[in-house]
Design brief:
This protein has about 400 residues and is of the alpha/beta class. It is built from 16 helices and 13 strands.
């Protein structure tokens, strides 16, 4: 865990987190990293679905099975409170917590929380300044609003899978849930903008963050290419649709990435590789190289197979030609640059479990993110939070436990 900064950017901000799985928890974890108090409300006896999404699982001090690694990746810097808000008393408790919070994040199906009086209209009626972020598959409006949405579906419907994978194979999803993660990041941006507005005016608002919307937006240059030309981009595998050579190439002992972004870099590469390809009209300019990428790839494959990956990378880096290896995760975490940047940190839970997690990657000179607490055990903060914020005494807590509300 990192040393505490002198000031935390979101110190004094309370987040009520009703989300689970990835997009919502990813957003609230980032808010927690910057100092917000995040109260994660989970179902008694079960918790966030991802606690069971394994293997692998972390073991507890007695050698038993703990939470899945999936859960751990998105839930540091939070307090876990178990409340069954399907019960009227539980819903009333969540409303009380919302009345004392600045931000609420939820990712239930559109309209589902209205049955419990936890929808935006109900919460805004008791806390007009609240920033209420709804993360769904398809948004609060439109013909698909009532559908359940998952990352895989968003990648397919939003166009990403149509441009990912080998042209001769099937469409491919990304191995990491990028639609969820981008939506979580967009949600953080919207939350901070709305929080600034609420602090200035006292007026809260609802943020409607949808996986499909974010996936469509993150198509970036490929989406712009279609909108400009009317021509849908095709899969080009490990090639770049508009730059060449910008691809994976075989070496004598493996593969490397050659990322040449302009003609000068290509000429430098050709001089280093002792080839006249830069003088060939088919390859003299980037536009020509893109049009003749198959012939270029074949020629480059012959050249790069003459040396090992390490030999090529050393020579290319010395010449200023962008390139890189394709690391497995064990190689990633052993990389000296990754180590120097503190990309991995060790955390310890209240039960003595110790494990490593990827750290927040942002570096701020005055208010850096920090890990103050490991991902919580299910319900470990229930009594403390309800005592602090709802002023519940031991008798009240015991009654709630006996009735199954907490």
């Amino acid at each position: 865990m990192t040393d505490a900064p002198q000031h935390r950017a979101l110190e004094g901000v309370r987040v009520l987190d009703l989300s689970r799985v990835l997009a919502g928890p990813w957003a609230t974890q980032i808010l927690g990293d910057f100092g917000a108090e995040v109260i994660k409300v989970e179902k008694p006896g079960a918790g966030d679905d991802t606690r069971q999404w394994g293997p692998p699982f972390v073991g507890d001090a007695a050698g038993g099975r703990g939470d899945a690694a999936y859960y751990l990746c998105a839930n540091r810097n939070k307090r876990s409170v178990t409340i069954d808000f399907s019960k009227p008393e539980g819903a009333a408790m969540v409303r009380e917590l919302a009345a004392r919070s600045h931000i609420l994040v939820e990712n239930f199906r559109t309209g589902a929380l209205a049955a419990y009086g936890l929808d935006y209209a109900s919460i805004a009626a008791i806390n007009p300044a609240i920033v209420y972020c709804s993360v769904t598959g398809f948004g609060q409006t439109g013909p698909y609003a009532a559908r359940a949405g998952y990352d895989y579906i968003a990648q397919g419907m939003g166009g990403l899978m149509s441009v990912t994978g080998d042209p001769a194979g099937e469409p491919m999803k990304c191995a990491v849930a990028v639609a969820d993660l981008f939506t979580g990041m967009y949600a953080v941006t919207g939350i901070l903008a709305a929080l600034r507005h609420a602090e200035r005016t006292g007026q809260g608002q609802q943020i409607d963050a949808a996986l499909l919307d974010c996936q469509v937006a993150m198509m970036a240059n490929l989406g712009a290419a279609y909108l400009a030309s009317g021509e849908a981009p095709k899969r080009v595998g490990n090639h770049h649709a508009a730059i060449a050579p910008y691809q994976v190439l075989p070496t004598a002992d493996g593969h490397l990435i050659l990322a040449i972004a302009n003609d000068a870099q290509f000429r430098t590469f050709c001089a280093l590789a002792n080839t006249a390809l830069a003088d060939d009209p088919r390859f003299a300019t980037n536009e020509a190289r893109v049009l003749h990428r198959s012939e270029l790839s074949a020629a480059l494959g012959v050249i790069l197979r003459q040396r090992s990956t390490a030999q090529w990378i050393a020579a290319l880096e010395a010449a200023g030609v962008p390139c890189g290896p394709i690391n497995t995760l064990d190689q990633v975490y052993a990389d000296p640059q990754v180590i120097a940047r503190g990309a991995v940190e060790s955390v310890e839970r209240s039960n003595g479990q110790r494990f490593k997690l990827a750290a927040n990657p942002l570096r701020l000179s005055a208010t850096p993110p920090e890990t103050r607490a490991a991902p919580p055990l299910l319900g470990e903060d229930t009594e403390a939070v309800l005592s602090e914020l709802l002023h519940a005494d031991s008798a009240q807590l015991q009654r709630w436990r006996e009735s199954g509300v907490i």
